[in-house]
Every structure is written in C-alpha cells, then in structure tokens.
Design a protein that fits this description.
The complex is a heterodimer of chains A (327) and B (795). With 327 residues, chain A is an all-beta fold. Chain A contains no helices and 22 strands. Chain B has helices at 11-37, 41-52, 62-87, 93-99, 106-122, 128-138, 145-159, 167-173, 178-199, 208-231, 237-255, 258-271, 274-279, 281-289, 297-313, 326-340, 346-363, 368-383, 392-409, 412-417, 421-426, 430-447, 454-463, 465-468, 481-495, 503-517, 522-545, 553-573, 577-593, 597-614, 618-634, 640-655, 660-676, 689-704, 709-728, 736-749, 757-780. The chains are: A mainly beta (327), B mainly alpha (795). Chain B: Belongs to the VPS35 family. Chain B: InterPro entries: ARM-type_fold (IPR016024), Vps35 (IPR005378), Vps35_C (IPR042491).
Chain lengths: 327, 795
C-alpha cells in the first residue's frame, strides 16, 4: 500500500561488508543515549562487499544507483551542514529499471584512506559510512552503512620522558609530582609519585581526575565541552613532610579516545590529569597537566601491567604554582 | 557513607554507628558470597568493594573501628579462600590484580589488592618478592593514621603464612628469601609506627590524654610487625644483629615519640630470644641513650636485665657465653645512661644498678669486686645529688639495692667484705637504715652463720649500729614499744651468733660486743646485755673444759668474771635490780661450777646486796629469796665458813620478810639448805636434821601467828608437806609424833573454814597430802626399806 501511494521505500537496500562477522565491533554512544556497535576498520583497509536491493513493487525506475564511502564531520549544532573530508563514489548501475526481486551489486574500495578516528562526542561527530543512493525522480532511496575507524600510532617505548614538576603555595604546601610519561596509550598505566616537600595544611585526601575536553570550532569562537571521565583517589588522610605517595592509574578501565588535535580544523579532543588535594576546610588545591593519549595496536591480548611496575624517573622541569580555589 | 566529621562522641552514638556499619557489611558480604558461590567473581569482588567502603569512615572511635575491622576481615577471608581454591584454577591472577585497582576509592582498593595479592602468592603464580614489595609500597596511599594502621595490619594478617622464610621455602615458591621478608616487615613497621606516632598530633591539644589512651589501645598493631619478625625461622643471631635490629632501632630513634619508643623497646626485648639479645646488648643500651626524656628507660633496661638473669638461671639455656662480658657491658652502658641521660633520675639509676647487681650476683657469684665496683658507683651517684634532692622513693630504691647482695650471698660475712656497703648504707635515712639492719640480723640468724673474729664482729655491729645506739638523725617522736622490743630481741639473738672457735678470740669478740652494747642506752641494755652475760658464761665453761690445754685458764676466767661483773653492774646501774640480781645468781652458779669459790661468793654477796639495797617490794623479795635459796642449795664450791655465812644470811633474811605467810614459807624453804646444801671440804650434803626441824618448827611458829584462818591452815599443810618430805628422806629428827600432832592440828582447824572456793582448795590440798601418806602406808606394808608410816595414825 505504501508503495502505491508513493510513500516509503519500494525497495529494501542492504549493504553487506565482506567478513563483517569477523571484524571487531566498537561500541559508540549516540546523542540520544542509545548505543551502536560498528565493525572496525583501519586506515588503508579495503572495503568490499555487496549491495543487495530487493525491489518490492513490479519494477523500479531509477536514474542510477551509486555507492559512496564518506568520512564526515558534523557539528551537532549545525547538522545541516556536515563537512565531508573523504568521499569515494562507485556507480553500481546506470539509469534504468530494476525488476521485482533481488539484485546484487558487488563493490570494492581498495586501500581506503581513513585519516581520522571515528568520534561520537558531545558536540561533534566524526563518522564514516557507506551510502547507497538509488536516484529517482521524486525521492531518492538512500541507505547508509556506518563503520568504525580507529587510528593507530606507534611511539617507541624508550623515547619517553617523564613529567616531573614541583608546585606549591608558598609556606603552605609544596609538592613534587612525577608522571612516568607524557604520552600514554589507551590501555596504558599512569605511574607516578607525589612527594610532599612542605605540608602546612591539613589534607583530607588526594585524587587524580581524568578530564576530557572537546573543543569544536577554531580559534576564539571555539566551544569547549569539559567532562570528568573519572575521579581516582590516590591518598586518604594527611601526609607529613617527606612522604611519598605512589600513583598507579589504569587507563584501560575507561572508555577513552586518542588525543585529537585540530581535526580537519573542526575540532579537538584533549585529555588532562588534574591532581587535586582537598583540605579539611574543603579548600581544593590542584594542578592540571595535559597528557597525550594514543592508540596502540593490539599486539597480544595481554594489556594488563600486573605487578612489578617500576615507578619511572625523569627530568625535572620548571617550578609552577598550583591554583587554589574555594569550593 | 561519608569520610567527613569527627568521631561520634557519646557511647550510644558509637554503638549505633557501629551496628549500622556492621549490618551493611553483613549485607554486602552476603551478596559477595552468593556471587562467589555462582562463580561470578567480578560481581563478588564488586560487592566486597562496597562492603569495604565502610572502612572509609571517620566517625568511629578506634575501638569501634577495630570491631568493624574484625567483621570485615572475617568476611574477606571468604574471598581470599575462594581465590586460592577456585579462582586460581584456570584464571589469570594478574588480570584480577589489575582489575581490583580500578576501584576509585583508595581504602577499599587497597584492601582488595592485599586480598588478591596474597592469594596470588598462595597459588604460587607470581613473584612473591615483587608482590609483597608492591603491596607494602601501595599501602602508602593511606596516610590517615587509624585507617592506615588497620590496613597495614590487614596486610600483616594476610601475609602471615605467605612470607618467604627458609631456603626450603624458596624451592616451593621459586623466589623470595628471608631477607625479602625482613625488608617487607621493616617497611611496613616503619610506616605503621609513623602513623601511630602521628595519631598523637591529631585534633585538639586538650585531648592529649585521651589520644595517648587510644594509642596505647592500638600499640599491638605496631608490635605485630616485631612478632612477625621473631616468627621468621630464617633469622639467626647474626642476621638479627646486622639486619633486623638496626632497622628497628633506627625507627625507634627517629620517631622521637616517647610512647612509641618505650613500647617498641619493651616489645623488642620480649619478642626476640635471649640469645639474640646477648649479641646486641650494646646496641640496645646505646639506643636507650638517645630516647626521649619521657621514656621510662629504667623499665626497659630492667626488663632486659631480668630476662637475662632468668636466662642465666635456666639450666637448659647453657648460660651466658663466656665471650660476652655481660657485666662490663651493662656496668659501662648503664653508667653512661645515668651520667648522660637527662631523664634518668637517681632513683631510676639505682633501680637499674640494682638489676645489674642482681645480674652480677647471678652470673658471677664469686666476683665480689664486681659488686664493690657497682656499689661504689651507686655511692658516687647518690653523692652527686644534693642531699635535699634525695627523696624517700630514692632511698627506698637504695634500700632495695642494698638488700640484693644480702639475699644473693645469704652470708653476712661476705657483705662485710664489701668495702662500699657501709658507706652506702650510711646514706639511707634512719628508718631505712634500721630496716636494713633488721634485715641483716634476720639473715644472720636464719642462715646460722657465726661471726668468728673481733674485726668482723666490729664491722657487723657497725653495720647494724642503728639498732644498737641512738642515732643522730633519729626522729624524736614516740617509739612503738612492741617494735622496739622486737628489734632489740633480734639484736639479743645476734649475740649468740658472735661465736669464735678460739677461746681467746671469743673473749675479744665479746668485749667488742660489750663496747657497742654499753653505748646503747638504758632502754637497750635489758635486751642486749643479758645475752652477752650468758655468752660469757658459755665461754667460761669452754675455758674450764679446756683447762688442761691452757695453763693460764684461771687468770683468764678471772677476766671473764670481771667482764661479767662489769656488765651486770651496768645493768644494775640502769635500775634493773631484779634482772641484775638474777644475773648475779647465774654468775655465781657459773663460777661455782668452775670451782672458783671467792668469785662465786663475791657474786652471791653482790646478789644479796642488790636484794637488800634495791628490792623492797615484798612479792619481789619473796621470789628473790626463793632464787637465792635455790642458788645456795645448788652451789658446791663454798667452804664451810662461807656456806655457813650465807645460809644463815638466807635464814635471817627470810625471817625478816614482811608478811608472815612469806616469812613462814621462806623459813621453811631454808630448811633445804641444811639438808641438801653442800660444802666444798666434804663435798657432801649437810643432812643436818636438827636444823631442818628447827627451821620447820620456826615456820610453824610463824604460821601460828598468822591471823587469817584459811592462810594459816594453808601454811600448816605446806609445812606438813615439808615434814613428810624429810620424813621420807629418813631425817631422824622428824618423828611420827610431830606428824601426828600437825595432822591433828590441821584437822582441828579445817572445820572452822567457811565454805568457799579457797577453803575447798585447802581441803583438797590436805586430802591429797593424806592420800599420799595412805598410799605410802600401803606400799610400806611388808617392805623393810624406806620410810615407815605404819605407826602413823590418821584420825
């Protein structure tokens, strides 16, 4: 009935990917709160498969069937104006007629360049999908098939300087903190330690907050969205001068993305570690440090760091002053 | 759940808070166990984490927190057991070790980490050395004293059976040796001690005492570390000395906290074996020098000494090795402590030296020089303090110290040899000096030791001078007469311990004693001099017994008798007439026994003189006369002339008594002198029946003068008894007629007595007398010998 009235699809379109079942699935949270699991592809991976069109009516008149591979950045505030940074097109069928029944069109994109990682953020989405368009006179039949893309990096483990810094408030609190690296892969462990050089305030506890900042737009007009991924308590009670508190923070426990800098001049995602000390009068003392997150190729299943992780050393850096704010 | 706020103050608040927390623990533990039963490990661990949130509280007092901890650690046992038994099979422990660290709150996270980590060791999967190291390091994250102490206690509790120990152990686990355990416990111990000390500085200063109390309640948590170390079999004395103890002592010194220092050192002393202590005496004692002023160093040193004394006394211990100069170590180190540590007061110094003394006496009983060395150091200590600063407690300690060698040697002659003993004793106050003197005397008497030389007697009596002489520092108040007499009787007993086997020396010993005792004042003479008289008389008998070996014996006896005479005169001058009279009588008898008539006579005459000049009370006179007559009857050395004089003197004196009844009895008594008295010439009894009867007749005559009927009859009966005695002794002057006459007289008089108790007594006396006669009559029937009562008619 719907077909007779010209509403709805007169044909079902399904996009099949080769070996889709074997692909790793990545879960994303959409802005409506639902979750979706997408097959994972890496930069340079081939995309191949077939498009199945099942024509329900007697026949389907069309002015061509196209398949596109699209990489798109869309600001949720400006959905109507997405920016496509990648677009590859294949003509599946020339204008003509498709008879009732099933039709299959194999396709293949070789060595597809996928420069960015899929990202489903608060204000921005970076997504990849295959789009089938059956061009018709009045309303095209369009079908999208999203995929997930992850970008892999490789940093040599040895070439890692630690982040070490002495901060404080004069005659009140001096600490020296040290994180073993400045770049961490997503399943990495942040190891570090806090030295208390001077303690004149009664500290109640200390935690590190992992903060994600999503910045959309460029320059001064950018909108920044800050989200605390987790609060991780690293000390209970008040230390005295000379105390050294260990930090061991497993990034693998959280859903994180690699740090993204100025992606196609549209947005950035950055991560920060905020070291927070709270005193008995509920004053907060904190020091925020950016950390670079990157995705490492899963070589083996073994990601756990286990025991015997040695707290690394490093070079000392400039003094800085922690900010104080009343809460 | 909140980590804020102060502990709830009231008791009910605490109970309620604890009850609520325990209820939540139980509920979560139930969920945890349910999940574990279904092998849902991660869910179980999550419930455990929720349960452990309770441990984040700041609202509970240490006591309540402890109760909560006990509940929680009980429940964690299930998890731990599950991990060891079930999870270990086919699951990866390292994964779990990471997963539990995702927990956002540190307290539950670390409890879980410890639980998983120790299970990890127990399934022998990971490197036990690294796991232990990691656990003890990660626990640094809890800096809150109470929560930190309990977390680390949990660590100790879980690792109790997982610590690397001996080499055999290493084969089973693959890695880790006892040195790793030592390092692990040292670290944990240091951190726990720091937390414990830090408790002191929390909160308001006015609650200092409350906090000290709370800290003392928690001390066992810190001490458990030391117990764990002492449990390690792999630690030998060498390892203890080089690794274990230095680590502990560093911590003790560095923390600068008196409560901690005192407890930890006591703990070290009590948990490690004596063999280890012997190797580390210097380190421990030198550590004492660095302790806080408020630490009772004395308690620590004394407890160490007491342990070693017990050790050396234990026959199974093998004693103190000879290469450890334990006395030198202690005397040097303790002296250093006393001289250099501000907080060691004289009294503490003395208490420590007292223990060192005990040690010296136990370990080196023959080294008198050690004891002397210590005593002179004590003296130096006491002298270095202004007299005004020496309080009673200090003196009591000194008294205790001075008793130590008495008990140890159990031989006062050894005490005398200690040169510094007397000067040190002189530092005691009057009362303590007297107490110690009594103690010395009692020891002398109990041990039965004899003091053989005049020098030793002099020294001993010098020591107990406070009992013998009035002291310059003696308080002026009333003296308890009972105590006084008890003390003096003790001194009296001491006299009998002044015994030399050599007669001449004994004489000197006694003269030495006399010199001391005569300075004692009148109140002491009555106790101290009589024993001296008897001791002298004993010596008289010894000289007499040895007279063949000593041709000067007579001269010497004379000296002794002079000595005795002087003493009795001193007693007499003190107004003790009856006592001196009796002593003269004793002296007379003593002289009589050794046949020196003139001296014996002299003593008798002295006795009479005292009787005449000093004794006026008629009762006293009567008893004196009785003694004098008895004495004279006993004597055998007097010639007829002297004897005659004296027996007449007795008779005359008897006759002069005031009361008729006394006269009567005394005169009757004198009859004995004429019958059984002896004179030197014949060395035979006088047996003068004539005079006997005269005496008795005289006695009757006096009795007749007696006005009171009952008394008179009583006297008649008594005289009758005399007659009967002599009759039975076959004194011819006593005839049947006399007896019959007297019996009749009594029979006549008896009915006139009234019917009272006294009369009844008299009747009874007479009846018994007559019964005796009747009995004799029956016995003599048919027999030829003995007195013949046959003719006596009793009406």
């Amino acid at each position: 009935m719907a077909g007779l009235l010209g509403f709805g699809n007169t044909a079902d379109v399904i996009v099949f990917l080769n070996e889709e079942e074997d692909k790793k699935k990545i879960e994303y949270r959409l802005e409506d709160g639902t979750k979706t699991k997408l097959p994972l592809f890496y930069d340079g991976d081939n995309l191949s498969g077939r498009v199945k069109i099942h024509v329900k009516s007697n026949k389907l008149q069309h002015s061509g069937v196209q398949l596109e591979f699209v990489g798109q950045i869309m600001l949720l505030s400006d959905k109507s104006n997405p920016q496509e940074f990648t677009s590859l097109v294949r003509q599946l069928s020339k204008p003509g007629e498709l008879s009732q029944g099933a039709h299959e069109f194999p396709y293949e994109f070789l060595h597809v360049e996928k420069p960015f990682e899929s990202f489903y953020g608060v204000n921005v989405r970076l997504r990849y999908f295959l789009r089938v368009t059956i061009e018709k006179r009045f309303a095209n039949i369009v079908k999208e098939k999203p995929i997930a893309v992850q970008t892999l990096h490789l940093y040599p483990e040895t070439d890692q300087s630690s982040l070490k810094m002495e901060v404080g408030i004069e005659d009140c609190l001096h600490i020296e903190f040290e994180y073993n690296k400045q770049r961490y892969h997503l399943r990495d462990v942040i190891l570090g330690k806090i030295y208390f050089l001077l303690v004149r305030v009664k500290i109640k506890h200390m935690q590190i907050d992992l903060i994600r900042k999503e910045i959309t737009g460029a320059g001064n007009s950018g909108i920044s969205e800050t989200e605390t991924v987790t609060k991780y308590e690293i000390m209970d009670g008040a230390p005295v001068k000379g105390e050294c508190i260990p930090i061991r923070f497993f990034l693998g426990a959280y859903e994180l993305t690699p740090t993204m800098k100025d992606i196609n001049k549209k947005f950035s995602v950055r991560y920060y570690i905020n070291l927070v000390l709270l005193d008995e009068d509920d004053r907060r003392y904190f020091k925020q440090q950016e950390v670079i997150l990157w995705r490492k190729q899963d070589k083996t299943k073994k990601n756990c760091s286990g025991v015997g992780l040695i707290i690394g050393g490093g070079t000392s850096t400039d003094m800085d002053t922690a900010k104080e704010e009343k809460s | 759940m909140t980590t804020q706020g102060e502990p709830g103050s009231s008791l009910e608040d605490q109970e309620k808070l604890l009850d609520d927390a325990v209820r939540r623990v139980k509920r979560n533990a139930f969920d945890m166990k349910r999940c574990l039963d279904q092998s849902q490990v991660m869910d179980g661990v999550n419930h455990a984490g929720t349960m452990l949130d309770e441990m984040r509280t700041s609202l509970l007092s240490p006591k309540s927190y402890y109760m909560l901890y006990m509940n929680v650690s009980d429940e964690l046992m299930h998890l731990s057991q599950f991990l060891v038994d079930e999870y270990g099979k086919g699951n990866r422990m390292p994964d779990l070790y990471e997963l539990v660290q995702y927990c956002g709150n540190i307290v539950p996270r670390l409890y879980l980490l410890v639980t998983v980590g120790t299970a990890y060791i127990k399934v022998r999967e990971g490197s036990r050395k690294n796991i232990l190291r990691d656990l003890v390091e990660m626990c640094r994250g809890v800096q809150h004293p109470l929560r930190g102490l309990f977390l680390r206690n949990y660590l100790l509790q879980c690792t109790r059976l997982a610590l690397p120990d001996t080499g055999q152990d290493k084969e089973q686990y693959g890695d880790g040796g006892v040195e790793d355990s030592i390092e692990f416990i040292h670290l944990n111990f240091g951190e726990m001690n720091k937390l414990w000390v830090r408790m002191q500085y929390q909160g308001h200063s006015r609650e200092k005492e409350k906090r000290e109390k709370e800290r003392l309640e928690l001390r066992v948590l810190v001490g458990t570390n030391l117990v764990r170390l002492s449990d390690l079999q792999g630690i030998d004395a060498e390892c203890y000395k080089k690794q274990v103890l230095p680590g502990i002592l560093d911590q003790v010194i560095q923390c600068r906290d008196p409560i901690s220092q005192e407890y930890l050192l006591e703990c070290v002393i009590s948990v490690f074996p004596d063999e280890f202590h012997l190797q580390t005496l210097e380190s421990i004692l030198r550590t004492c020098q660095k302790l806080h002023e408020r630490v009772a160093i004395r308690k620590i040193v004394v407890s160490l000494l007491e342990r070693l004394i017990k050790f050396s006394e234990n026959p199974d211990s093998g004693g103190i090795p000879s290469d450890i100069l334990i006395f030198n170590i202690f005397s040097v180190e303790v002296s250093e402590l006393i001289q250099n540590h501000k907080s060691v007061a004289t009294v503490d110094g003395l208490a420590m030296l007292s223990s060192v003394l005990n040690l010296a006496l136990t370990v080196y009983p023959k080294e008198i020089s050690y004891v002397d060395q210590l005593l002179s150091f004590c003296l130096k200590c006491v002298e270095s303090v202004p007299e005004a600063d020496i309080n009673n407690i200090t003196l009591k300690e000194l008294l205790k110290l001075l008793k130590v060698p008495i008990d140890a040697y159990n031989h006062v002659l050894t005490i005398i040899k200690l040169e510094t003993y007397a000067p040190l004793m002189a530092r005691l106050g009057y009362q303590h000096r007297k107490d110690l003197s009594v103690y010395l005397c009692q020891n002398l008497i109990d041990t039965g030791i004899e003091i053989p030389t005049p020098q030793e007697a002099e020294e001993f009596l010098g020591l107990i001078e406070s009992l013998i002489k009035k002291q310059s520092d003696e308080p002026t108040g009333e003296i308890d007469p009972e105590d006084f007499s008890e003390e003096q009787n003790l001194v009296g007993q001491v006299v009998h311990r002044l015994v030399s086997p050599v007669n001449d020396q004994q004489y000197h010993v006694l003269t030495t004693a006399k010199k001391y005792f005569t300075e004692g004042g009148e109140e002491r003479l009555r106790y101290t001099l009589p024993p001296l008289v008897f001791a002298a008389m004993k010596l008289v008998r010894r000289y007499y017994a040895d007279k063949d070996a000593d041709d000067k014996w007579e001269k010497k006896l004379q000296h002794i008798f002079q000595f005795i005479s002087q003493i009795i005169h001193s007693i007499s001058s003190a107004g003790l007439s009856e006592l001196s009279l009796r002593l003269f009588i004793q002296a007379a008898l003593s002289a009589d026994r050794v046949h020196v008539e003139t001296i014996a006579y002299e003593f008798v005459s002295q006795a009479f003189m005292i009787y005449e000049e000093e004794i006026s009370d008629s009762k006293a006179q009567m008893s004196a006369i009785t003694l004098l007559v008895g004495m004279l009857e006993q004597m055998g050395s007097l010639g007829e002339e002297n004897h005659e004089t004296l027996r007449s003197k007795c008779a005359v004196t008897s006759n002069k008594l005031l009361r008729k009844s006394n006269q009567c009895r005394a005169v009757a008594l004198c009859s004995n002198l004429f019958w059984s008295g002896r004179i030197a010439e014949s060395n035979a009894h006088l047996r003068d029946g004539q005079r006997v009867v005269e005496c008795l007749r005289k006695a009757l005559k006096i009795a007749n003068q007696c006005m009171e009927a009952a008394a008179q009859v009583q006297l008649f009966i008594e005289v009758l008894n005399y007659y009967l005695y002599y009759y039975e002794k076959e004194c011819e002057s006593v005839t049947i007629q006399i007896l019959e006459q007297l019996i009749r007289k009594i029979n006549d008089s008896l009915p006139h007595l009234g019917a009272n108790e006294e009369a009844e007594q008299i009747h009874k006396h007479f009846q018994l007398t007559i019964q005796h006669v009747v009995h004799r009559q029956k016995l003599s029937e048919g027999s030829t010998g003995g007195p013949n009562y046959a003719k006596l008619k009793i009406i």
